[in-house]
Amino acid sequence: MNAHSLAKSAYGQHGAPTRTVRSTEYDIIARITHRLHEAAQSGTRDFATLAAAIHENRRLWTLLATDAADAGNVLPDEIRARIVYLAEFTRIHSSNVLKGKGHAAPLVEINTAVLRGLRAGGAQS
Length: 125
Known about the structure:
The protein has 5 helices and no strands. It is mainly α.
């Protein structure tokens, strides 16, 4: 092995490419949205799976709202306010779905819209 080969193996790319915060957010939201969508398709036939998916989605939105409310968050105030509003809507609508008074489709639609926004902003770079 020559010096060039040694340097290339020592400093070359190994493993996965560097991920951005945005791409990590995208992947997490996509995974949760996929589970929620699949569980919604089953509906009341598999209520435990639906409840677990809704719980996971609520946790996601609680974290997003907490982050948006943080004074150090650099997002514009309007976007931060929308995130907090969507988190509250998600909390209330999720309770209605679990009570049998609503469907999970609006929750999936909200997450999908967020995913489109993340993708448009460069999440998949």
